[in-house]
């Protein structure tokens, strides 16, 4: 089983979600730790291989968590957020940019740790 590592404010953000959403995302991450992909997890294109987005819905809205399995020996949860847009299913551009910056930082830290 892979270790689960929370990056930046991802755990704090997840804890602010409704309990049912926390349960959904938590189980999907557990499945990822076992080396599988939960049905609610889909590749997040344009950010490199192994970057996945979990989607969960609740009467209060749509929620997402982004994780990567391609850096080191851990699964890193790099972002958790509530999707505010009412139109379309696409991940907001600002969220994609934040995830991109965090992945860059994470990859740099992992590279430095190996050297």
Give an account of the 3D structure.
The protein has helices at 10-15, 19-33, 93-114, and strands at residues 3-6, 41-43, 51-58, 61-68, 74-83. It is globular. It contains three helices and five strands, in the order βααββββα. The protein has a five-stranded mixed β-sheet, sandwiched between helices. The protein is of the alpha+beta class and 115 residues long. A hairpin with a 5-residue loop joins strand 4 (61-68) and strand 5.
Low-confidence residue ranges: none
Mean pLDDT: 93
Terminal Cα separation, in Å? 25 Å
What order do the SSEs take from the amino end to the carboxyl end, as H and E? EHHEEEEH
Overall 3D form = globular
Considering DSSP H and I runs of 4 or more, what fraction of the residues is helical? 25-40%
Look at the helices and sheets and give the structural class. alpha+beta
Largest sheet: 5 strands, mixed
Radius of gyration based on Cα positions: 14 Å
Task: Determine the number of helices (DSSP H or I, runs of at least 4 residues).
Answer: 3
Q: What fraction of the residues are assigned to beta strands by DSSP? A: 25-35%
Number of strands: 5
Strand line-up of the largest beta sheet: 1-5-4-3-2
């Amino acid at each position: 089983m892979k270790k689960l590592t929370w990056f930046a404010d991802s755990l704090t953000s997840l804890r602010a979600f409704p309990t049912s959403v926390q349960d959904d995302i938590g189980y999907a991450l557990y499945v990822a730790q076992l080396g599988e992909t939960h049905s609610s997890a889909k590749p997040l294109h344009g950010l490199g291989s192994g970057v996945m987005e979990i989607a969960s819905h609740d009467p209060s809205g749509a929620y997402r968590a982004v994780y990567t399995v391609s850096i080191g020996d851990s699964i890193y949860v790099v972002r958790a957020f509530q999707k505010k847009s009412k139109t379309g299913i696409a991940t907001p551009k600002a969220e994609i940019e934040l995830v991109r910056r965090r992945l860059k930082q994470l990859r740099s830290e992992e590279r430095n740790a190996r050297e």
